[in-house]
């Protein structure tokens, strides 16, 4: 049967795709579960017990729509960030908010600046609104603010993406560099500053809220999916100048957040002690993953996130083979998509039981990969 | 501070708005809670206890992203509907799915046919993508398939909205009429058939799945927000020809569903006994609301939904005054937005305790409204 003929030309030109193939999809296709879930940078350390209790208590109330204005969550976030509630817009994960911001700026042919190998879901949304990519290279495994700035000026792009700390490499810039990059952009260019991994970064990585809140062309995004252990509840938030944040009300799905997500997020913010515990666990896990890598002759990259990019020491084909062999051994991991980043695999911080599976399977995976992918 | 200057012309032209003001927003502004929550057609009869238990059990797993492909839910829905999983697309409520379907078809200036006073969130999405409205009148408090068909042919619109049963009037058409309307549309026009209230309608209201599943230009939408009592979990689904359904994968937020929502929906489908109980409660509540209306000299309209539209017997100003007086007495209700539908207020089915509050407050609300809004 042919596709409906009156979808827009843009939609008809798009592939039916998914930015990431989920572990459940892979398990379904493989016919068996993974033994270690280390690919999606989830937090297997889990949400706060107080969050679980709050969700449990709220479950019988799931018949009520959530508050369309997210008043309690925005108030709690405002207190947490030291800003005003009208500078904050929660949404269905950073992914959902990315899509909305892209929609507000990108039309067919609009140039958009990002880095080669940066977050695929951003690219998915840009493609979905017909944007034209202007891509710059990573430099020393970091996004390159100078090159991004130059590309913005040369292309006149109204939108540039920058992730700090970075996914998929785990690298980061100091707050001063990020602030200077942001403030140095033309007023006509929106900076989408993705700080999904911000809570795990060393002090001095995130610009203070007040450093950029006066810029109508800066939107920062954070999430409860990573350090707060609530990926499955889809809660992200954008913050920035209130006039810019108000624009989300023009296009968002106002009743899109689940009531349980709103409750979970408010409760998660209250339990900063749990967050601190998890941050300690993540640090321990990063060291453990790095040790495993080194024991196998590989090079772990420094990380300001809840994952470690491991340089497998050869090319992308080899790293892809290593990844394939790990997956075949029931270890779910992912890796960057483009050279030279794709010499690495990316392993999420997780409790010891899962890292032990990774440790046990990595040597055989490396041997098998070496057998199928010999160096030139 | 000025708005960011490079939002698209379309976005700059849109108001920052919300299709519905939520009860929490009103409570926040009033400074006190409602005593009866009868305005959003939620199901205060609640979700199945088995659903609550499943969500409770799953809460500690909320750190995992949900399955991007919704495999379990689609498989369960396919079994429930007697169709194939690839003809079904779950999403973040019907509201979210409406937005995606509109996005796939509507560009600035695209004509879109709908009824005056039909679902405001559909209109919100059409406006959000720059569509041009072609509106037809309700006829005898029902959507008018003949007039909609004619408007489609005259405007060449690629999209028409039809709700069965209807919100806000509670009216409905038989399956044969709906099927004939759908099959009679031009191939170049997509029918968005909103069946959010379908479970509550009399037998013979919903066309059988197979009656329309072969039409690439028909997408039907249903929800877990109404009869299943899960409005707060944001779970809707679209179903139709698989080529059409596949197109959602081009534009949707693949990881947008919460894991708990996926689990809740699968469990809700299993407990059809709970659904039957709720349907009985809804019928009892409809009769009760109708009796209260008649006791006060008002005329309840027949309803195939979980609400009753009550004709207040005069014009929109009077009905708006009645609504205002009910809200002032802590009874949350809503009403249609345009004449002649706006001679009615709309009251949701709910447990007796809340309906008793409505019964107690309605006489005073009517007296007060009569005092401020005298007939000509």
Automatic annotation (TrEMBL), chains A, B:
Keywords: Aminotransferase, Pyridoxal phosphate, Transferase. It comes from the Bacteria. Residues 38-352 form the Aminotransferase class I/classII large domain. The keyword Disulfide bond does not apply. Pfam families: Aminotran_1_2. Gene3D superfamilies: Aspartate Aminotransferase, domain 1 (3.90.1150.10), Type I PLP-dependent aspartate aminotransferase-like (Major domain) (3.40.640.10). PROSITE patterns: AA_TRANSFER_CLASS_2. Coiled coil: none annotated. Pathway: Amino-acid biosynthesis. Its cofactor is pyridoxal 5'-phosphate. InterPro entries: Aminotrans_II_pyridoxalP_BS, Aminotransferase_I/II_large, HistidinolP_aminotransfase, PyrdxlP-dep_Trfase, PyrdxlP-dep_Trfase_major, PyrdxlP-dep_Trfase_small. One of its GO terms (molecular function) is transaminase activity. Belongs to the class-II pyridoxal-phosphate-dependent aminotransferase family. Histidinol-phosphate aminotransferase subfamily. This is Pyridoxal phosphate-dependent aminotransferase.
């Amino acid at each position: 049967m042919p596709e409906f003929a009156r979808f827009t030309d843009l939609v008809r030109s798009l592939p039916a795709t998914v930015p990431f193939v989920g572990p459940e999809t892979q398990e379904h296709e493989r016919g068996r579960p993974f033994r270690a879930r280390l690919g999606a940078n989830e937090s297997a350390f889990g949400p706060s017990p107080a969050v679980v209790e709050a969700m449990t208590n709220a479950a019988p109330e799931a018949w009520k729509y959530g508050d369309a204005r997210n008043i309690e969550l925005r108030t709690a976030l405002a207190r947490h960030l030291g800003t005003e509630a009208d500078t904050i817009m929660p949404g269905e994960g950073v992914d959902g908010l990315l899509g909305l911001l892209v929609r507000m700026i990108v039309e067919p042919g609009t140039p958009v600046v990002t880095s080669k190998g940066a977050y695929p879901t951003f690219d998915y949304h840009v493609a979905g609104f017909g944007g034209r990519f202007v891509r710059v290279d990573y430099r020393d495994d970091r996004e390159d603010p100078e090159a991004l700035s130059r590309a913005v000026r040369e292309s006149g792009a109204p939108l540039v993406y920058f992730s700090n700390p970075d996914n998929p490499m785990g690298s980061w810039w100091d707050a001063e560099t990020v602030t200077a990059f942001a403030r140095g952009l033309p007023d006509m260019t929106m900076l989408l500053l993705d700080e999904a991994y911000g809570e795990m970064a060393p002090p001095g990585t995130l610009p203070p809220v007040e450093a950029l809140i006066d810029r109508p062309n800066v939107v920062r995004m954070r999430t409860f999916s990573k350090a707060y252990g609530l990926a499955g509840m889809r809660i992200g938030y954008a913050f920035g100048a209130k006039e810019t944040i108000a624009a989300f009300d023009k296009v968002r799905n106002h009743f899109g957040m689940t009531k349980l997500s709103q409750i979970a997020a408010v409760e998660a913010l209250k339990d900063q002690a749990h967050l601190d515990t998890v941050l300690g666990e993540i640090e321990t896990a990063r060291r453990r993953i790095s040790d495993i890598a080194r024991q196998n002759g590989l090079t772990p990259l420094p990380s300001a996130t809840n994952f470690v990019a491991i340089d497998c020491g050869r090319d992308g084909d080899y790293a892809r083979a290593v990844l394939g062999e790990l997956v075949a051994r029931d270890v779910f991991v992912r890796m960057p998509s483009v050279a030279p980043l794709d010499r690495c695999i990316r392993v999420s911080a997780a409790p010891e039981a899962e890292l032990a599976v990774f440790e046990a399977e990595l040597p055989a995976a490396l041997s098998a990969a070496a057998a199928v992918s010999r160096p030139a």
